[in-house]
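Continuing the series of single-chain predictions for the mutant panel. This is the parent chain; the variants come on the following pages.
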Amino acid sequence: MLISPSPYAAIYPRQYIAYHSDVHTSTAEEPAITIDGDLDKPFWKDIPWTEDFVDISTDTPPSQRTMVKMRWDDHFLFVGARMEETDVWATLEQENSVIFHDNDFEIFVDCDGSNHNYKEFEINALGTTWTLLLNKPYDDGGCEDSKRVDPVNGYDMSPLIRSATKVYPNDAINRPDVRNTHWTAEVALPISKLMERNELARRPSDGRQWRINFSRVQWGVKVNERGEYEKTPCCQSCAVPGTAAEDNWTWCSQGSVAMHLPERWGILQFSSSTSPRNDEVVLEYKEWDVRCCAMAVYYAQKGYYNKEGKYTDLIESLKPFFKQPFLLHGAADVSITLTKEEGFIATAKIGALTATINQERYLTVSKDVVGPPFSEKA
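Parent structure:
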């Protein structure tokens, strides 16, 4: 919920309150509940669902619903997802395969809001998973760090992570003769691994906010002459329905067919309550405007660079390159410094908050210190 007027209100993302676990036996190595894909267990009973997923970039509603719910404790972030599906199929059984080549469910977490070193988790209906870390978005030259690309030293969340799926009815998967209703995914993400390499990250606590989004990749299928499912790309809610491509359904719209835009992800708010309370409120994400202003400078610099082959330290030169939805905030004090590495560092100050961003989209926010200056006693 955005309380104050904002030039970026149209893209303010969805928010969700994650309630604390009411089971207090988790350790750093083992979650407090059995992760088996069953979202009907008491652990999840009173926890609300998110809104239905939307298409990643269009206003066309997806043909099948997707919803998520979350809880947390000192060691794990718990995620449960429900995907309506009449034809549940999957083929990939090798861990750390490129899971979105099947229908899948995906989790993206940026626990410090820096747009760097964020984590991604994917799972298909067979329960096969892919875990990776992105040092920065692909458009900024980022690369995947995972066991897929480096089986010895690559990033993963094992052995702490737990995940499972369940297919309805009767675990019927790859069965065209059975009409499915839905499948579920249940995941316990270790908080220590989510925070790995994020120096500015702070652990979950009451009122703390992280950035998060979810994606569901959905391919068309047909039954071939052998009576088996066969992937037949034909998107439903995309910009041109019927195109030979997959559908991408997300919790928060990304504005384009691109999940690796962390600045567009949703807001996860942690609560110390174990269940919803009437007096609990969704907190305004106070950094929203200053972050968006910094992103506006970033995108304008990219536009300027594409034309001129270099960055500029003159805000006047950038004015033709500010585009919706990231226009320059009228109340912002912006400064830009060019670096020796042919990059830039820009700051945007609105009120007591200052956002700093560079050419690789690395973004931090600081707050003015209020109060008398510190004086050390003699």
